[in-house]
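Page 47, continued from p. 46.
Same chain as before, 161 aa.
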Amino acid sequence: MAAHFRPGTIFDLGTSLGLTTSYLAMGNKQASVYTFEGCPSIAAEAKVNFKKLGLQHVQQVIGNLDDTLPKQLQEVKQLDFVFFDGNHRYEPTMRYFKACLSKHHEYSVFVVDDLYWSAEMKRAWQEIKQHPEVCQTIDLFYIGLVFFRKTQPKEHFTLQY
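Result:
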């Protein structure tokens, strides 16, 4: 997806060992990639992985996402791509989604991971789909794609396979 959409600014909310971050960073090596991780020891493991892969354009943001996300949002002009995988509960997911909306544009792509992880995530996904800024969604079961293209009709797709 990063190779296709060519986002300039990528946020990965939930680094863990950095696998998803690495895929996103390799998809567009010109992007500014910010990856957020709350646990310093896990972030250190991810840093080793980024170094092995030569991903010098990945910036780690370490600390509680409730504190680090608002600060980092102030530092960027816009968000082109966001991967939400930092918390699998309704309230934080919606808070992070709404915070990132402040920097979205018509061609931003948001990806929500673990849609059916829990009843709370199902609820968050339903609310995201209904948000007035959201124009199109694609439910791929494990992840949901969110688009903001006002030039296209408001539509929601579910792909079953």
